[in-house]
TrEMBL record:
Tree of life domain: Eukaryota
Name recorded for this polypeptide: Folate receptor
PANTHER family on file: FOLATE RECEPTOR, FOLATE RECEPTOR 1-RELATED
GO cellular component, one term: external side of plasma membrane
Naturally occurring in which organism (per UniProt): Oncorhynchus kisutch (Coho salmon)
Family designation: Belongs to the folate receptor family.
């Protein structure tokens, strides 16, 4: 019977990998399961064939007065269009991507039960994001926490005055890693490496293969063969006895 246990453990491991490869976060606006949406709005369009966002969410992602999170991008003057483009793509990536499973973590927050942590972003995406925002202004490094929400929308806290972007975020790495409290991890990997996630793309979604790579090389995944070997050894010892 030991071989049956090994088979069941192996099948359970494969099922877990497949689930993490195509899943949606348990968060505020995400669908329960990914699927085709037909048409998604502008910057969210690349995910239309398999998305965790609805068409309505994709449209709201482009709106400065969006109901999604009531977040005010213009908290230190009007954000430049070239900078705002990256935040729109970032929102589409977060809301629509079905391939974030390897980096989804449980959280105890009122507005979501899961978040992403340390998603490895391609160097070009981080650098171009920072380059296009470096002439803008902001007042905080971590945009997840610490805002004044008394008006219903985020405002800079009294003690935090507006400063140049490069004063708050001296480098692309600091911006990408700190702005959403370590949701992203800066890498030196180019898009061509197939080892980093792309915030935006055209054509076929390249992030599925990246997620598959990290799933296959995750610590818990590497532990499965060792578990199978240990179980087989123990079972064989019982048989020999």
């Amino acid at each position: 019977m030991w071989w049956v246990l090994i088979l069941l453990l192996s099948l359970a491991s494969q099922a877990q990998s497949l689930e993490k490869l195509n899943m949606c976060m348990d968060a505020k606006h995400h669908k329960k399961e990914p699927g085709a949406e037909g048409q998604l709005y502008q910057q969210c369009a690349p995910w239309k064939d398999n998305a965790c966002c609805t068409a309505n969410t994709s449209a709201e992602a482009h709106d400065d007065n969006s109901y999604l999170y009531n977040f005010n991008w213009n908290h230190c003057g009007v954000m430049t269009p070239k900078c705002k483009k990256h935040f729109t793509q970032d929102t589409c990536f977060y809301e629509c991507s079905p391939h974030l499973g390897p980096w989804i973590q449980q959280v105890d927050q009122s507005w979501r039960k899961e978040r992403i942590l340390y998603v490895p972003l391609c160097q070009e995406d981080c650098q171009s994001w920072w380059d296009d925002c470096k002439d803008d202004f902001t007042c905080k490094q971590d945009w997840h926490y610490g805002w004044d929400w008394t008006t219903g929308r985020n405002r800079c806290p009294a003690e935090a005055g507006c400063r140049k972007w490069t004063d708050i975020f001296p480098t692309a790495q600091i911006m990408c890693e700190k702005i959403w409290s370590d949701s992203y991890s800066y890498t030196n990997l180019p898009k061509s490496s197939g080892r980093c996630m792309q915030l935006w793309f055209t054509g076929k979604n390249p992030n599925e293969k990246v997620a598959e790579y990290y799933l296959n090389h995750a610590p818990w995944q590497r532990a499965i063969p060792a578990s199978l070997l240990l179980l087989a050894t123990m079972s064989l010892s019982v048989v020999l006895l």
